[in-house]
Here is the input.
Amino acid sequence: MKFSKYVAACILIGGISPTLPAAAGDEPAQPSKPMRDGRHDFDFNIGVWKTHIKRVLDPLSGSTNSIELNGTVTVRKVWDGRAQLEEIETVGPNGHWEGLTLFLHNPLAHQWSQSFVNSKVGVLSPPLIGAFKDGRGELFAADTFNDRSILVSGVWSDITPNSHHFEESYSDDGGKTWAPAFIANLTREKP
Here is the structure.
């Protein structure tokens, strides 16, 4: 039985772990290797960072029209490291902008969730959920943009002790193509 990437992403996002009926002739499932813990995957993010953000205004239209923001990101541990709280303060062409991100580790699923709220809107976004592999974090969610259902991808990459890159992209075709919507480059100011 095959699933499309979209259905697989929806299952991942919803945290559903379906049990499919075995088809005639299917081999019994082999025991999977143990999942890596992952609880320290976001430790690199703790501290104070200078950030440069590029926000594409209408990413699914193919337009590159964007605004750029500069500011500070402060990340601290919560619950003895099982969660993190990130405060973003920037200035751009429309003035002062603030955001807040909550990172939560699920020790049973060995996954992280990332929920964001914009201070001007005050509504928590659906959480991106995923994990790190080979030094790269990939988290996904289902959401809406301009009243259309989309998939959202958040990727943490180029991670060093003093810098990292975050990119959020949108897909309105079930994950076949992705359009960058939010790009942030961060440089450590202090631990």
User: Anything to note?
Assistant: The chain has a mean pLDDT of 86. The longest strand covers residues 66-78. The chain is about 5% helix and 55% strand.
